Amino acid sequence: MSHNSFGHLFRVTTWGESHGPAIGGVVDGCPPGLSLSEADIQPWLDRRRPGQSKFVTQRQEPDEVRILSGTFEGLTTGTPIGLMIENKDQRSRDYGEIAESFRPGHADLAYHLKYGVRDYRGGGRSSARETAMRVAAGAVARKVLGTGITIRGALVAMGGDMVDRANWDWAAVAENDFFCPDRAAAARWEEKLLALRKAGSSVGAVVEVVAEGIPPGLGAPIYGKLDAEIASAFMSINAVKGVEIGEGFAAAALTGEDNADEMRMAPDGTVQFLANHAGGILGGISTGQPVVARFAVKPTSSILVARRTVDRHGQDRDLVTKGRHDPCVGIRAVPVGEAMMACVLADALLRHRAQVPDAPVSTRLPRN
Amino acid sequence: MSHNSFGHLFRVTTWGESHGPAIGGVVDGCPPGLSLSEADIQPWLDRRRPGQSKFVTQRQEPDEVRILSGTFEGLTTGTPIGLMIENKDQRSRDYGEIAESFRPGHADLAYHLKYGVRDYRGGGRSSARETAMRVAAGAVARKVLGTGITIRGALVAMGGDMVDRANWDWAAVAENDFFCPDRAAAARWEEKLLALRKAGSSVGAVVEVVAEGIPPGLGAPIYGKLDAEIASAFMSINAVKGVEIGEGFAAAALTGEDNADEMRMAPDGTVQFLANHAGGILGGISTGQPVVARFAVKPTSSILVARRTVDRHGQDRDLVTKGRHDPCVGIRAVPVGEAMMACVLADALLRHRAQVPDAPVSTRLPRN
Amino acid sequence: MSHNSFGHLFRVTTWGESHGPAIGGVVDGCPPGLSLSEADIQPWLDRRRPGQSKFVTQRQEPDEVRILSGTFEGLTTGTPIGLMIENKDQRSRDYGEIAESFRPGHADLAYHLKYGVRDYRGGGRSSARETAMRVAAGAVARKVLGTGITIRGALVAMGGDMVDRANWDWAAVAENDFFCPDRAAAARWEEKLLALRKAGSSVGAVVEVVAEGIPPGLGAPIYGKLDAEIASAFMSINAVKGVEIGEGFAAAALTGEDNADEMRMAPDGTVQFLANHAGGILGGISTGQPVVARFAVKPTSSILVARRTVDRHGQDRDLVTKGRHDPCVGIRAVPVGEAMMACVLADALLRHRAQVPDAPVSTRLPRN
Amino acid sequence: MSHNSFGHLFRVTTWGESHGPAIGGVVDGCPPGLSLSEADIQPWLDRRRPGQSKFVTQRQEPDEVRILSGTFEGLTTGTPIGLMIENKDQRSRDYGEIAESFRPGHADLAYHLKYGVRDYRGGGRSSARETAMRVAAGAVARKVLGTGITIRGALVAMGGDMVDRANWDWAAVAENDFFCPDRAAAARWEEKLLALRKAGSSVGAVVEVVAEGIPPGLGAPIYGKLDAEIASAFMSINAVKGVEIGEGFAAAALTGEDNADEMRMAPDGTVQFLANHAGGILGGISTGQPVVARFAVKPTSSILVARRTVDRHGQDRDLVTKGRHDPCVGIRAVPVGEAMMACVLADALLRHRAQVPDAPVSTRLPRN
């Protein structure tokens, strides 16, 4: 029942504040014998790292991760993996305004009312900086899942402008600053974001994460359903306000006939689905189809446009959030969403094999 | 890490299959000294009960709940509350087809592949019958929350036809068969559902749940965020494919200025929000505003229109799901959504007061 | 974090009071495909059942267990197993004294101070009646463990009179009323208990549980150590005041040389221990040797000798606990201890195979 | 279900190996607003620190703890408290023998069989070095408990030589190298240990921990009983083989009359117990009396006397464990036991106030 832990058998605990000396995490329950070093984690962190394009916060953090425990001679040992990243860019600045006032859309007031004390520097614990540890844990989770499972994320909408799925190209994701799989959309977004940035404004986005190669059977009904775990994982990411699986909210507008994922036997004896409205999950259990999930990220709350608020002394204030500006936090949420998906799946895999060690790994029907 | 338990300090465990002798649940962690009898639970079950209108399944279940433990002389004792409902309407029928084939959109294949054995009668454990226990637990949760907190649900869209919020009247919810707060929409839906029912089809829906009177401070970042708990709770409900908080997916299309919930001091010394895009939750913590959440329910998978599928012997089949037909399972999900919200909030309340026993119960700012 | 649940992956939740309508339990996480019916559970309950000899409480309970969910056509389905036993012998009696006064050695005062309300009938939730559900769950756990693992308990001391290990014969356990493996001791105990019973007194006992056929690797350091789980399991049994593993407290008086379990290779390539001071557990992990654990049960607190106490109105009282008298509750704790050991081991087995699915099942050394 | 976490609401997770770069821990769920700095933790670590007398390991570790998160301006913020101690004395040495052979009494073989890989340097994760983090967490737990609660430990037996309780003086504990409350016993032990050390042998010990000022009501039956939590906590400490509460194993030899803790009303309206055989816990719930618990520590397994064992290649070996020698690991277990007691009580306190926020804090009877 740990507030700062996620997962059950593949269990991630994080600690650290935006402007403290370091952030860190512990991955407990990782199977032994997996090859793991910092080099396996760093590339994923680099993808999430701020300061890499003009569209994300300019905080300069090398985000160099250290593995402090849990490996020996390059292999995981089954003991907890301690991870740490030192905070470098704690630039000396005046926190007066943020210390005194509650930024609209931020956790400031909520933390103040709940805890009474609040580390206001850069948002403290509520900062998206915490997500670096999720990405690090996700890299470990990928090791658990093995190379047969692919988890990829993309930004599929920005400020209401959606990608055209006909243009979808996973290769495009690495080519632009938005993790956008549609080159045409990426071009539009670039223009749009430049304008928003100039205006000191911000915009929301939708992230899609697709996991392929997933065996059937992951997920544990009723309350450990795979989709429920994904929903919790995604909703725990900063600024996320919605989560959907497969057809998602659009399913609410469909008829039963249209939403059915019909099935046929394939020549190789496996069950083939003729559609994937379900997003790879039925009854809370993976079906062997790709797991498809999306989450909505609200627009960055820190903007250069003055907003009405109050301060801790109960005075009305008009507040402009100065400092590094990130016009679309949804962009950096892509690697975070991938990481959370990896963690959820690794956890579900361990749970599944605990209960059903000899379960089938494909949709080939067991004889009976 | 129980698969069939929900919550942490207010902890609900359910058991039972659709056509077994009974379904039941255990509510653990309930505070002592609360007045509780079957009469406190039965009305909520009656609201969810099947067979009450022509738009829901015609299964006839009195759904009479018995409290088997945890109360003494009308008061909760702090020990686990055992609840049970006997299954009455296990009508004798031929399960041949459903036993042999995997119904598209149902958990059949997933359970078959995961577990190898499957109680196919009425969907077994994956049946929505399990939600009766959620409603019973929700009734207990309401006792924990007390009378100052109101939790109400409504159907806000059916088959893509949304309510007009200008017409919203909570009183209307009890007047129609849809829990619809917009009388005009209810009239349209009635017509629409009759046609769908006649056609043997079905349709999806969106449910909104609003909790008012919530104190600030509920929710425990990072991974016990109130919205993450709600997301998990709602996504665990049968047929749910999406969850959103406050503005939800629409937030992804807004700018930071438009999405900001600005604040001003009220004359009584409390902080007042000028909008509620956040749905009452910031940084995973309740702000004192109404908590607003929605979930999307897919169309009923059991339809009278033939769909392509396979059987357990690996043969292609075309399947019509006979039996009781429920053209919009989203309707009965309304009381379930309310119950899950109640359970999440009761749990969050206990967690909050464990860590911060003297936290403020309003947005009146603490002096400091 | 459920107060009334035990275990992690093989998870048992119990509910019910001594004199309520029923007691029950839920076993969650049980693997699918195991043959299970009431006939697998009932014999273990019969062993624990009261009223079977003159040395245990004369409450007459058939203790007929019903499986209400989680099996289908004689096999476990992987869904929660709901278990229930109706309470039959809730004899009409005057609870005046026990309702008003706090029995020394019982939970009465503690429950009263903690919860404010208290089901005083027969001790309510604190009654040893709850242990029937542990025994039922233990029967399921034995199914999970399979026939290669044997778990047996025995009473090894009563009132300070210990068995002579030279006389140990497991066959003797079923021959006397004490689960005593030493026929000579059993004869002495019979005489002793008859005298104590006549005097309205009671006496404590020590129970030993031995599990054989345990694979190495069970237990998860640091805080999920197998011995820590056993300690928690045993200490949660009513009236238990001490737990020890292997040499236990006697190890505190040994030297390192004497306490070392030396090793040699056996001709079959397995590691053989030359002693078992460790009780089959090193570093919290099973070694493949028999797991040996003991627990101390205090004398029955309900005695016919007057003791000084107070009542709920703050008046001094002298109290004789009338009613059914059980001169040595330690006797009936033997099947309960076995059951808890079975539950702990089943849970550890599932945890172990989640993390290390291909771990060796004997002490044959892996090549490396 | 984290293997390396302890507690529920006051939750401690540790990581790190004996000879890795650092060891660390995370304390989650700590209430906000408590004054906390390194200076609050360091003295407790200093008490546990090796190399302080000739009777404990000569490893030289300053054990300087750093708080990396969870505090702001000297106060806890309610967010996870990250703690770290760098390992300094990882002396360069030849691990050949310990890398190849399995030391009797150590976790070597068990880890090898379970995990396949093993960090053999100094015992890796199974090293008692991990207990430094327990002591650090215990210091935080003491803050949660407040100054009204006193937790003190003492060594009450060494190698079978027990203290005389008539000589008990808490002040003596700080005066000798053994945390011994009996000056006469301390003198005898000094002589004894010098001889054992010279002989390269070792000896076991018994530690007693007493917590005073405990309010009634802590502990949550049935499976979260306070004594079950203490049993698990103590048994998880390295080398512990037995745990007992109050009278403990001695209770098994008593009659019901002798074991009863009789009660009388005190003039101030509180219930007074006339004895404390129960060790302050009845029915798993604290009674307001001092909580008294003991644990048995086996003799140090690393001794300079050759023992028979095998190596990883399946060869018989005779092994002398060279290196720093600790003739009685029980000594350093005293501060660890205190810390575990503090953690258990802090956790129980949070759980109790979550469920029963207005429970009485003394044995003064509520009016009803």
What attributes does this structure have?
homotetramer, 368 residues, alpha+beta, 5-stranded antiparallel sheet, 8 helices, 18 strands, globular
What would you report as the Rg of chain A, rounded to the nearest angstrom?
21 Å
Q: What's the overall average pLDDT of chain A, rounded?
A: 94
Biggest interface, and residues per chain?
A-B, 123 and 124 residues
Number of helices of chain A: 8
Question: In brief, what are we looking at here?
Answer:
Chain A is an alpha+beta fold. Helix content of chain A is 25%, strand content 21%.
Molecular structure report:
- The structure is a homotetramer of 368-residue chains.
- With 368 residues, the first copy, chain A, is an alpha+beta fold.
- Helices cover 25% and strands 21% of the residues of chain A.
- Chain A has 8 helices and 18 strands.
- In chain A, the strands form 6 sheets. In chain A, strands 1-2-3-7-4 form a 5-stranded antiparallel β-sheet, with helices on one face.
- In chain A, helix 1 (38-48) packs across helix 4, helix 1 (38-48) crosses helix 8 and helix 6 runs antiparallel to helix 8 (333-355).
- The model of chain A has no long low-confidence stretch (mean pLDDT 94).
- Chains in contact: A-B, A-C, A-D, B-C, B-D, C-D.
- Chain B binds chain D through residues 1, 9, 29-32, 78-79, 221, 350-351, 353-357, and chain D through 1, 9, 29-32, 78-79, 221, 350-351, 353-357.
- Strand 11 of chain A pairs antiparallel with strand 11 of chain B, so a sheet runs across the interface.
